[in-house]
Design a protein that fits this description.
The complex is a heterodimer of chains A (about 290) and B (about 325). Chain A is mainly α. In chain A, about 70% of the residues lie in helices and about 5% in strands. Chain A has a domain of about 180 residues. Chain A has a two-stranded antiparallel sheet with strand order 1-2. A two-stranded antiparallel ribbon of chain A has the order 3-4. In chain A, helix 1 packs antiparallel against helix 8 and helix 2 runs parallel beside helix 4. Chain B has a domain of about 210 residues. Chain B contains 14 helices and two strands; from the N terminus they run αααααββααααααααα. The two termini of chain B are about 15 Å apart. Classes of the chains: A mainly alpha (about 290), B mainly alpha (about 325). Chains A and B meet through helix 4, helix 9 and helix 11 of A and helix 5, helix 11 and helix 13 of B.
Chain lengths: ~290, ~325
């Protein structure tokens, strides 16, 4: 049997793979957004730009310092997280007491600044980044590129690790408690402003990590962030920002759906996530995993 | 406006009308018309964010879609200008109704994300549909007769036509904001559960405001197409929605005149910086950050605050 309802297995697995790759980034990005939103009640519009920054830091490390992919996988997220910490400490923190609109507009402004800055420096055409894991796995019906397998597994591991950190560790328990009732947690002597800052750093670091992982697959371009972030917003609306596992399941699931759409109805691939969003909004206005407020 | 007497207001209104009437003899009419279109687009965004508390990140879909429909109706079908504009505004209102039905079910930031996602959907459709011309857009849109007698191909006639319709749009917003309907909208913005408990159908009010705002954004888009004779993907791109928000916040979000002042500032800035096109994003981003951090009330809001602070002394 070399086809499945008339679709060749090789094509099916290939597109599913592409879908899961995209899904890895949807999951990582929406996870970061959920963590930040859960505690800070800020929608980080700069998330896409921070993802782009991660990719550019990895590219710059290789281009100017000769530092390769594996060290960059650690360095770039730290650089992006440091940038996020400074941004939170200097600017974002001052807006928590105000209407959420302002924090949203601030992060949008920062996203424009970053995208504009990189466009000025590097233009809109992408920079290539070499594939650190050439070769592939032969799984009988088709050939899976090794790097892509690595991205999917690494994204899954990071997502589950983050879930474990937030649900099962003491610091994670503080985070969840602060999310539920900030004043109460403060009375226990926990430094909530610092926790907010670290949370923002963590979320932003996840965006940076996604950027490094994306660099060898997509071109490193100033536009990569804004192209991704809008889809990720739709993913977040579909999943709801209530649960971490929800973000992970929705991210990978929608990636797979998108990949299969590319196979069955190529013209629909660009819009299928938005169509799913419309359906979910019509049936479950608070998202698949969201809670009504 | 509450800080000025009715007579001062009337004088200011007459002065404003005189300024609009004289302006094309002083400044470049095309630039002034662009300014007015953006002011109306920003005012439609402001109606939602300033008076209903809904931050839309997707008004480019109404603006752009209305532009495409008007351009197609006028150029390909040879429609009268009035019919072309009505078709554009109607399309925008219909998209507003469809997206609004789903978007207003979620509040706050979800609303912003949903409108942004819908706008991206419209962008993809505009990219793919044959009648929009894809990357080329619809070019060389003729300037038709309106109602068979107003010749828009005359530059001055076009200017006063655009000024009149934009003025009409602003008058409509003024009427809405100062009507009982507008009072209910503000009550919903300030305390939604309370407005609901008083028996108002909150969702219906929000939806109506959303459709109205979409139609006004559509009017701005249709006029823009007749002015520049061009409908392109830029009009439906998220950057246009961002620019409308920027104009709102620079001018002052909770004020009627904010979008006008904001549009004067932002559109002239972009006009003078046209030779540094690659700097536009950076400057827009920097202005966002500066205004949000330092003067959240915007120019008009600061001016009103200044008037209010002088009042007890007077």
């Amino acid at each position: 049997m070399d086809s499945f309802f008339g679709i060749p297995w090789a094509a099916l697995i290939g597109q599913l793979m592409v879908g899961l790759i995209n899904g890895s980034f949807y999951a990582l990005m929406s996870l970061g957004l959920s963590i930040i939103f859960g505690l800070l009640h800020v929608v980080n519009f700069a998330h896409g730009a921070q993802y782009m920054l991660g990719a550019f830091v990895a590219w710059g490390l290789l281009e100017y310092l000769g530092i390769g992919y594996w060290p960059a996988l650690l360095i770039a997220p730290l650089v992006v997280a440091a940038f996020g910490l400074a941004f939170e400490r200097l600017l974002l923190r001052r807006l928590y007491a105000l209407d959420h609109v302002y924090a949203l507009l601030l992060t949008f402004g920062v996203a424009l600044l970053m995208e504009g800055g990189f466009r000025l420096q590097f233009g809109v055409s992408g920079q290539p980044y070499p594939n650190p894991l050439s070769g592939g796995l032969d799984v009988g019906v088709t050939f899976l590129p090794l790097y892509r397998v690595w991205v999917i597994l690494a994204a899954l591991a990071v997502c589950l690790g983050t879930w474990f950190f937030i649900e099962k560790t003491k610091l994670g328990a503080y985070l969840r408690a602060a999310n539920e009732n900030t004043p109460l947690v403060r009375t226990f002597g926990i430094n909530v402003p610092r926790m907010l800052m670290l949370t923002y750093g963590l979320g932003v670091g996840l965006a940076g990590l996604s950027g490094v992982m994306a660099a060898p697959i997509y071109q490193v371009s100033p536009l990569m962030g804004s192209n991704l972030i809008i889809v990720v917003f739709a993913v977040v609306v579909i999943g709801g920002m209530g649960s971490i596992l929800g973000s992970i399941v929705t991210g990978f699931g929608l990636g797979a759906i998108e990949g299969l759409t590319k196979l069955l109805y190529p013209d629909g691939a660009g819009v299928v996530i938005f169509v799913v969003m419309i359906l979910v909004l019509a049936v479950r206005p608070h998202g698949l995993f969201g809670r009504a407020h | 406006m509450h800080f000025l007497s009715p007579r001062t207001n009337l004088v200011l209104l007459l002065l404003a009308i005189a300024a609009v009437a004289v302006a094309p003899f002083v400044a470049y009419p095309l630039f002034l018309m662009k300014l007015m279109c953006f002011a109306l687009l920003a005012a439609s965004v402001n109606l939602l964010v300033g008076y209903v508390g809904l931050l839309s990140f997707g008004h480019a879909m109404f603006y752009g879609a209305a532009g495409y429909v008007t351009a197609h109706a006028v150029k390909v079908w040879g429609w009268d200008g009035a019919a072309g504009i009505l078709a554009g505004v109607g399309t925008a209102a219909a998209i507003g109704l469809l997206t609004g039905l789903l978007a207003i079910r979620r509040q706050g930031i979800y609303f912003s994300m949903i409108t942004l996602a819908f706008a991206q959907l419209v962008y993809f459709i505009a990219l793919r549909m044959p009648f929009t011309g894809g990357e080329d857009g619809i070019q060389d849109v003729p300037r038709p007769l309106v109602l068979g007698l107003i010749p828009l191909h005359d530059g001055m006639v076009l200017y006063y036509f655009v000024a009149a319709l934009v003025g009409l749009g602003f008058w409509l917003i003024h009427r809405v904001v100062h009507s009982p309907f507008g009072q209910v909208l503000r009550a919903i913005r300030d305390n939604e559960p309370r407005a609901q408990s008083l028996g108002y159908r909150v969702l219906r009010y929000k939806l109506l405001a959303f459709v109205l705002s979409a139609a006004l954004a559509g009017l701005a888009g249709s006029l823009k197409v007749l002015v520049f004779q061009l409908a392109t993907l830029t009009d439906v791109h998220w950057a246009t929605s961002g620019e409308a928000l920027l104009i709102c916040i620079v001018g002052g979000m909770h004020t009627l005149l904010g979008p006008v002042v904001g549009s004067i500032v932002i559109v002239s800035m972009e006009n003078y910086l046209a030779s540094f096109a690659e700097w536009v994003l950076i400057i827009q981003g920097a202005v966002f950050v500066l205004v949000v951090m330092l003067f959240r009330k915007g120019i008009v809001g600061q001016f009103y605050a200044y008037l209010a602070s002088r009042r007890p002394a007077a």
